[in-house]
Amino acid sequence: MLPQILKDKVDNVLYNVVDALDAGFSILDKDLNIVCANEKLSSILNLEYDPIGKTCREVYKCECKDNKYCSVFQALSSGKKQFCETQLITERGERRYIQNISTPLKDEKNGITHLLKLSIDVTAQEEKIHQLSLLRKLAELMQGTLQIDRLLHLILTCVTAGTALGFNRARLFLVDKERDIVYGKMAVGPSSLEEANRIWSEIAKKYEKLEDLIQASEDNYRDDTPLHMITRLMAYSLRDENEVIVSCVKNKKIIWERDAFHNPNIDKKFVNMIGANEFVCIPLIAKDETIGVICVDNLYSKKPIIEEHIQGLTTFANRAALAIENAAAYKILSEKVRQLEETQDRLIRSERLAVIGNMAAYVAHEIRNPLATIGGFARSILRASNQDDQIRQNAGIIVEEVSRLERILANIMDFSKPVESVKVASQINEILENICSLMDPYFKNGRIKLTKIFNSMIPKIIIDPTQIKQVFLNLIKNAVESMPGGGALTIETIVEDKHIKINITDTGEGMTAEIMQNIFVPFFTTKVDGTGVGLAVSHKIVDDHGGYIKVKSSLQEGTTFSIYLPI
Prior knowledge:
Blueprint: H1 4-21, E1 24-29, E2 34-37, H2 39-44, H3 56-60, H4 71-78, E3 82-89, E4 95-106, E5 112-121, H5 123-143, H6 148-160, E6 169-176, E7 181-188, H7 193-206, H8 210-219, H9 226-232, E8 235-237, H10 244-251, E9 255-257, H11 268-274, E10 279-286, E11 289-297, H12 307-383, H13 389-416, E12 424-426, H14 428-438, H15 440-445, E13 448-453, E14 461-463, H16 465-481, E15 487-496, E16 499-506, H17 513-518, H18 534-544, E17 548-554, E18 558-566
Parallel strand pairs: 13-15
Antiparallel strand pairs: 1-2, 1-5, 3-4, 4-5, 6-7, 6-11, 7-8, 9-10, 10-11, 12-14, 15-16, 16-18, 17-18
């Protein structure tokens, strides 16, 4: 027990001091058992029991684990006052910063008899320092992120992270000038109190650094949470200035609503959608224009929003707006570069095809006349009845090879010959149905099982039906030829991203990556009697229609050609 003289001193002086400091205190004997403590200590350390009679290790937990670094042992061994700061995690997952001051208590002979330990909650001060440091770090992270969706998710993660600004939930709204609306883009936060408690507890235990939390949130991000999906349904006309979000956009001012449920001047539709009585809307302003709004609340923790929280969020929002503006500009620039590269690639390919076509036409013309002469003489020999069998056999081989060369020359001449395009409104499904009917005997002979999955809702598009039919015929014929022993052929039509997508899938031999890189190069072929013209012509036709072709293939599994034609 504490000596009476010392206890009287504590009663007369210490309680008044610690009350003025709003601090918790304990007195420990030399065996580090707590012999005296005030009620404030239990509140600060989040204790559910009386600390008197307990050991220092039991009460302070994170102290005394290593004597070398323990401030209590250092105070006992040095006889000097020692300071240390510890972190506690409350049941609600909140991080609390505690400053502990350990002071030796000495007797008349200057011997240490007890230790006085003051515990002061410095969370508010630490959070201010922490937030200033984080705002700088967040600005660096945002400026280094140019992928727009990743940036938006980063912003909301920072707004809701307990290690950063620490709001329960955050919604991001963006302005769409073309549609004259402000709409919900993304949301981060729990969807229920149970989920909130689980997440906060997990975050407090796992992620001390903001970078770790951001990486984990990116890896585990889901866009099918109730909060996100509800937010995506929210959209408001910029002409309706009675709406909270629209007012924030138009006036470029913060809206801090403390009692939304009972405020007759606020639109209840928005309040009911977010379900929070207190919330803050911060405009995102870049180049003197509002590009969006961040809406935050503390629905589950019920922690009051104070002026300091809004100041931190406002500073962050200013940086976030500039980062979003930069990311949007980068996205536009990237799209322009992509279009330029596509145009350049298309021009180079067209010039290459033109050169190859002219050369092919010249070669075909020079070969065709002597080839016709050879073929004519060989047929004359074959028709003569007085020739022996060996001569007739040799003449037959010459005629057969000449015929094959003539077919190759015909394909080359078709490739080199410019074709005028006649584009009309056409239905892709009808073209494919006609082709399938035409090739039905071909499928049966090749033991091909055909599956048609046609979307009946696809619209008519402006194409040259004859040229597009040629594309489909080439690809379907190639698919069948890749399945010499029979197989399955699937033809599917889909509407995708303002395009009609036609998938032609086979279960054939597949292709290597090297072959796939060259399949559209003129005269490249893997067939014994192929010319390498069909796919090159198909690619050019689709390209001339403003579309493109994608290919996926796996050896011994099959190939899918996907043709995209603009609607």
